[in-house]
Write a structure and sequence with these properties.
six-stranded mixed β-sheet, 231 residues, binds zinc ion, four-stranded mixed β-sheet, 24% helix, 12 strands, alpha/beta
Length: 231
């Protein structure tokens, strides 16, 4: 059985009442070690996630296109932007604060992936690479979930970036409420998935608009929430 969850700023997404260990500006359930929060707080939040669900494995994300195949639980955080496994009991985790946490799975063959997709991840086609690898590992019926991320109205960019991304992925074209150039990354990623024959389920939540989520665009120094998938 495949399980997925998306944590928020104030909840681990498990339905249980929680009290996060991180204090302002990382309050409450920051799960990232690299953002300036105290290590003890982050490890306490990760321990709470482990107690309520599964032992999660994280990665050192670089907006690159490296994929790491997990063959056992490990304290190490591989430098990668996607984790794949067929091993049960390991929560593959992607950390975000505006980027898209993409979870992919094929329940028929017990194969799962957690992917970090931001603007650069869209441009470097990490999702296509992950799907190709999953198919090479036997997947034939992949499904996907896109967790909360910044929406197309909030993600303002300069004209150069807009032209580059929209040139490659026309579905990303968007405008802010003031009519400035903006990118709709979830729309672009859904388009990529559709072309791959994958139906993606999209969260309607915008991390920049909802105080329930960490948002780098809104807050700068802040924590990270996670998308987690396990079998
Ligand atoms: Zn928004």
């Amino acid at each position: 059985m495949v399980s997925t969850l998306f944590t928020t700023r104030f909840s681990l997404g498990t339905g249980l009442p929680d009290k996060g260990a991180s204090s302002n500006p990382y309050n409450a359930f920051n799960l990232a070690l690299h953002v300036g929060d105290g290590k003890d707080s982050v490890l306490a939040n990760r321990a709470a996630l482990r107690e309520e669900t599964v032992c999660a494995m994280f990665m050192n994300q670089t907006h690159g296109s490296s994929i790491f195949i997990v063959d056992g639980i490990s304290e190490m955080e591989p430098t990668a932007d996607a984790l794949i496994t067929q091993v049960s009991g390991i929560g593959l985790s992607v950390l975000v604060a505006d980027c898209i946490p993409l979870l992919l799975w094929d329940a028929q063959v017990d194969l799962i992936a957690a992917v970090h997709v931001g603007r650069r991840g869209l441009l470097n086609a990490i999702t296509v690479k992950v799907v190709e690898l999953m198919e090479a590992m036997g997947a034939t019926q992949i499904q996907g979930k896109l967790g909360p991320s910044i929406c197309g109205v909030c993600y303002e960019v300069g004209e150069d970036v807009y032209s580059q991304v929209v040139g490659a992925y026309p579905l990303t074209q968007s405008r802010t409420q003031e009519g400035k150039f903006a990118l709709n990354l979830p729309a672009g990623l859904l388009g990529v998935l559709t072309e791959l024959g994958i139906q993606g389920e999209l969260s309607k939540e915008c991390t920049a608009e909802s105080p329930e989520y960490f948002s780098y665009r809104r807050d700068g120094i802040t924590g990270r929430q996670a998308g987690v998938i396990w079998i």
